[in-house]
Design brief:
There is one protein chain. By secondary structure, the chain is of the alpha+beta class. It has a single domain, classed as Alpha carbonic anhydrase (Carbonic Anhydrase II, Roll). The protein is built from 6 helices and 12 strands. Strands 2-12-10-11-8-7-5-4-3-9 form a 10-stranded mixed beta sheet, sandwiched between helices. A two-stranded parallel sheet has the order 1-6. Strand 3 and strand 4 form a beta hairpin. Helix 4 crosses helix 5. Bound molecules: zinc ion. The site of zinc ion has 4 residues, from strand 5. The site of zinc ion (ZN) has 4 residues, from strand 5.
């Protein structure tokens, strides 16, 4: 009974958030369905406050925003979470969690999380930092709890708050990632779904995620609604190359550039920042100071040596 209830609620949430994924494929990541044609599917995709963006740390404005507290993500004992291959990504659906903090006004409910990844470990993330692309990016989608549903929230400028986390290749992975990887083998077919035992969202996240970038943007898939308060975190989640390969076994509803249906490169190119401002609740350039000082010190030392030589 619990399972059926959760599945039904999750399916409704999924259809509400991804209406264009139902029925014939009208958008994708390759060829005539690719991102450069999305404005034909939804005019909003051609507007000026789109996501993702290239994050330039030296262009950020400091802003004091408190950290997120993501301690609850369907931790109810015995509850199952639905994980879906919607033909574009793998989505883990949750229903009962809250997403407080992060300098956001009001309460947000966590609706789902999903991933964007590359054909190789050299690409995959949607946001980039100084032009650097990561092998994968996870999006935790939250909607303002004062709105009736995800689809209702998607019609309001403050409706959604999405948290973006980058992945980085490591010899050992973050322990929580294997829970997702294990489930992927059951949803390789486009449109299929399975359940995973509920777990605490913190199990997927970096040990510290108090620092983040903030800007106003959009959904990164059609209909590209400009209703998203973005928080992108600089601290990465570690994953192994072998685990990344499992994501690429998912089958997409569209044919890729290799002529098969392996799901990869399901990321949108970065969009123009325009007149928007990028904020950070930390000094992203603080880490660069020692190397600058070191370079200056080396320069001073070198000039000193040279002056003695000549
Ligand atoms: Zn996404």
């Amino acid at each position: 009974m619990d399972f059926l209830k959760v599945f039904a609620v999750a399916l409704v949430a999924f259809v509400q958030l991804f209406p264009s994924a139902i029925g014939a494929s009208s958008w994708g990541y390759f060829g005539s369905d690719g991102p450069s044609h999305w404005a034909d599917v939804s005019a909003t995709c051609g507007m000026s406050s789109q996501s993702p963006i290239n994050i330039i740390p030296t262009d950020t404005l400091m802003s004091s925003m408190d950290a997120f507290t993501l301690t609850k993500f369907d931790t109810t004992t015995g509850l199952s979470l639905n994980i879906v291959n919607n033909g574009h990504t793998g989505i883990l659906l949750g229903q009962r969690s809250k997403c407080p903090g992060g300098g956001l006004t009001g309460d947000y409910n966590t609706a789902q999380l999903h991933f964007h990844w590359g054909k190789t470990d050299a690409e995959g993330s949607e946001h980039t930092v100084d032009g650097t692309r990561f092998p994968m990016e996870m999006h935790i989608v939250n909607y303002k709890s004062s709105y009736a549903s995800v689809s209702d929230a998607a019609g309001h400028s403050d409706g959604l708050a999405v948290l973006g986390f980058f992945f980085e290749i490591g010899d050992t992975s973050h322990p929580g990632i294997q829970k997702i990887v294990d489930a992927l083998s059951s949803i390789t077919v486009s449109g299929s779904n399975t359940t995973v035992t509920a777990f605490n969202l913190n199990e997927l996240l970096p040990s510290s995620f108090s620092e983040f970038y903030r800007y106003s943007g959009s959904l990164t898939t059609p209909t590209c609604n400009e209703v998203v308060t973005w928080s992108v975190f600089p601290q990465t989640i570690k994953i192994t190359s072998t685990q990344m390969d499992v994501f690429r076994t998912l089958q997409s509803e569209e044919q890729n550039d290799d002529g098969n249906h392996n799901m990869f490169n399901n990321y949108r190119p970065v969009q123009a920042m325009g007149s928007r401002k990028l904020y950070a609740n930390f000094n992203p350039n603080a880490g660069a100071r020692p190397s600058v000082h070191l370079s200056l010190s080396l320069l001073a030392l070198l000039s000193c040596i040279l002056s003695r030589m000549f």
